[in-house]
Amino acid sequence: MADSSPSEKNFETDITTTCPICFESFKTPRILPCLHTFCHNCLSSYILSTCKNKESPVGFPCPLCRRFVPAPSFSVEVEKWTELIPVNKIIHTLSEKGDKLCDACKRADEEIEASDWCESCSELLCASCVKYHKRSAVSKNHSLIPIVTFNNVSEQNKKIESPYALCQEHNDRVEYLCVEHEELCCTRCAWNKHRKCTQIDGIEEVAENLRKKGKFATLSKEISEYEDTLVKTKSEGEDTIRYIDDTSDEIRKESTELRNKIVNHVDALLEDHLSELAQNVKQNKDNVAEIVAAVSDRHLLMAQYLQTLRDTELTPPSILVQDYLKIRRQFEHVTRSSPSKLRLKLHSHFSEDLTRILQVTKFSDIKTEIKSLPLRGIDLSCATMELICELNGCDGDVTGGCFLENGDIVLANRDSKQLLHYRNYELVQKVTIGMQPRDVVQQTPLFILVSEHHNLKGNVGQFDLNAFKNVEEILKRDNNVYSLALSLGFVYAACSDLILKLDSKGNVVQQYKVDNYTYSVAINNKNEVISSSCATHNVTVMDNSGKKMYLYTHEKLKWPYGLDVNFSGEIFVAGKHSNNIHVLTPTAELLKIYEVESPRCIKLKKTSYMCFVGSKTKTTKVYEFEKYLHR
């Protein structure tokens, strides 16, 4: 076979020393985990342009192979990521030298093309020098990499990747884990930096303990659950983009049809309207696309984590522990910085405007309703409780109520013996019933259940939502009935010293003995029974058999009259006499206390952080828990 032409040799050299972004010789080449190399400035500009519109970016795709590259650190700004990506030493050397000649031979005034790179010496070597390098006692253990492999990513992987984790400080093989600092150590680190630490375990022992304790499986499960959320959120975002397109098309069609009927007067106004619509659609699609991109990045990152965690049997212990610690830390950061998902609606009053076209000088604005929902919930220990509005017409003695599926609110006003129905926070009807209402829950889209009592006689009635009248009595008792809760088709009713569990026909299928003056009951997503007693000022969590699991008491909780539980299982307790709302974890541990004047009940809207708080003497108020933003 004929020798390669000079142009072919130069082309091979260009592949090695030319940045694939700027097509010039590398300047401070940075190598990604996929082993593609780019100039420092080129990669930095690319990362910034890729991540600038993403919320809390967690990485970026390689410019060449599109493999997702996790952020080198979640504790530094995106602008500094490139500085933490390692320099490709051999490419750096080749770029600076401008040739591929053996460094050892050049010192002897000979020009022989190099075949290998010595990582330990940071020198290029020809085939002869490689042979002597391997024979020398001083350099026999040096790591040699054939230069040709730098044109083949898969070969680079085989040659460059070490089977052992290396100490970041000394670049020596990791032998230990400092349990106190959760830091991987080589022998020198263990004897110097960590000699005063209380527990330093061998890396193989640590890896085996992690396997036995199921740590990898636990982390895999958490990541899988989060990945499922990301997949669902990404799909919802894509559906929202399609919804924007479909809805905007409908608005456009309606607008255009009406324009044709009165075109002489409407043309000028219509152009402004369509321009505004297009701008609004683009802006909202861009917003949703940013969320989808952020979620997609997290999805790719979770997939990488899962792949690493599933291959634990074949992974050396030090790498295994290193990966586990790194993934766990990064996963905690990623879940804390999760992007929000958007709920969006487009509205146009174009048709109404056109019917009054002779009086209109400008079409109404295109409006978008956007709701930002966190993927993994708000950290209620550092959230704020923001007032949305007050519900006029319910001045005191509201003991319960609920949000309906359509967003309406129904309140139970004990003194007036009325049910109050609110739509868009405005009172639309009042209905007086025979007894004093205590609580309301929505049983089906058409029916609500209302607990009521008078003179130690109580019952639970089924009310038709359309007619707002009692159509059937579910339960009759010779004592009072207070708060209600629904779960899996069963109705739970708080009756002071008992909680009754009823089937759909009103039959009592189970009774739970509780402390006196228990006025509230709630059921979480694990079907656990939560109650509060105004006699003991305690909150109790029981399993569905009635066994007590968790107990909460606090010096600042007095007369816990009402409570509710949200979609995450967090418990909200209204301290009537302590003038506060206590927010607890699902295991009844305190997250935060919010000061609220004389709260009598608190009810949460499903799958949101909105609630209303009823009062003995004050107007019922609607609140929303929000992330605290530093200003």
TrEMBL record:
User: Which lineage is the organism of this entry classified under, starting from the top rank?
Assistant: Eukaryota, Metazoa, Spiralia, Lophotrochozoa, Mollusca
Keyword Zinc-finger among record annotations:
yes
B box-type domain: residues covered: 97-147
From the Swiss-Prot or TrEMBL record, what is one GO molecular function term? Answer: zinc ion binding
RING-type domain mapped to chain residues: 19-66
Q: Please give the name of this protein.
A: Tripartite motif-containing protein 45
Say which species the protein is native to. Answer: Magallana gigas
What are the entry keywords?
Answer: Metal-binding, Phosphoprotein, Zinc, Zinc-finger
Report the PANTHER family cross-referenced here: BONUS, ISOFORM C-RELATED, MEIOTIC P26, ISOFORM F
* PROSITE patterns tied to this protein: ZF_BBOX (PS50119), ZF_RING_1 (PS00518), ZF_RING_2 (PS50089)
Which Pfam families does the record associate with it? zf-RING_UBOX
